[in-house]
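Duplicate of earlier report; Chemotaxis protein MotA input re-posted below.
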Amino acid sequence: MKKTDILTPAGILIGMTAVMLAIYGNAAGDGEVADFIQFSSILIVFGGLSAAIVINFSIPDLKLLPRVFRETFRTKEHDLEQLINTFVDLSTRARREGLLALEAGLEEVDDPFIQKGVLLAVDGIEPDVIKDIMLAEVTAMEERHRKGRTILEKAGEYAPAWGMIGTLVGLVLMLQNLNDPESIGPSMAIALLTTLYGTLMANLVFLPMANKLALSTEEEIFVKQVIVEGVIGVQSGQNPKILEEKLSAFLPDHIKGKEEDEEQDLNE
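Output:
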């Protein structure tokens, strides 16, 4: 089940707060947020960035963008211990009542990937074929996630570049009007603020979001690999205790250590 992830908005808020505090806490003590808002700089960075993204990707890819952004504000919790217990129960039932009995209780399993694997096992498909089918779905999922994540990665690459383009525009304007002292300030503001906007968007929004999605995909792939091993174990009729030991190898060390301590306490 996916839940709202407060860490993404919290991280962006912390970053923006740090910038604001830096503005107000400068040595001169006269910093104003309004001094850092420049319409021309915003137009160059965000307009240029939007143009580059539109050129780089197709319309179907761009339609993924709202969903990609939405996913960065959501998280999916994976309970490996509960997952292992699910396969232990399925293995126990399969050995006691046969594989066909598993189909009747599948509505109790929330994960569609587990349901698909168990149904393949119930249909009597060979373990190697089951593994190939399920891993093919994992590969397809990874590719979908990669395609959506690439948009954010490219935005993170293009934003600083367009900031530099804005800097060049500002410098050109400044050099063309050196005889007009009043124009030097606004031109220099464009030159510097575009770099600030581009770098800030890349390193506070786009690249952290892309990395977060990459880590989320890795975690989901790992969990699905555990599910594949569990389904194969159930299909092959492995002893529930052996299957539990096999799947427990996927648990993090701190969880395995906790389980060992609990078993030791029970034995005492």
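The chain has one domain: 38-260.

Merging into the original ticket.
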